[in-house]
Design brief:
By secondary structure, this protein is mainly beta. The protein contains two helices and six strands; from the N terminus they run E-H-E-E-E-E-E-H.
Length: 121
């Protein structure tokens, strides 16, 4: 596994993961909502990714409407799915458009020196 700063996860969205812009050996963090099932997740950019939930237990009161609790999923993205190791509830009121703008700033060439991004290019 590639070494990054301890406790530091690359913040990503669905487009970054599915386009393979993030090194697949890294642990990443995505923020969004469960979508349609406990194995689909709608990220902050509106794109969806598959979840592998073999290491977690989805919430008993799972809202799959795409309008429920905003969650952070931490795991490794490989084989077109995020293998989730940690799930954190944030709030149903998180403004995902603001979060998405933060990701865009982190990945902007002007500011990349300040963030650990784990990009492949």
């Amino acid at each position: 596994m590639s070494a990054g700063p301890e406790g530091c996860f690359v913040r990503a969205n669905a487009a970054m993961l599915t386009s393979q812009k993030i090194d697949a050996s890294l642990i990443v963090s995505v923020v969004g909502r469960y979508y349609k099932s406990s194995t689909q997740f709608q990220c902050s950019d509106g794109g969806t990714i598959a979840l592998s939930t073999q290491y977690i237990e989805p919430p008993a009161d799972l809202d799959v409407s795409g309008q429920g609790m905003v969650m952070e999923m931490v795991g490794q993205y490989a084989d077109n799915a995020l293998t989730v190791f940690v799930v954190r509830e944030l709030s149903p009121d998180v403004d995902l458009s603001v979060y998405e703008k933060m990701i865009e700033v982190q990945h902007h060439p002007k500011y990349q020196q300040y963030f650990y991004l784990g990009t492949t290019s």
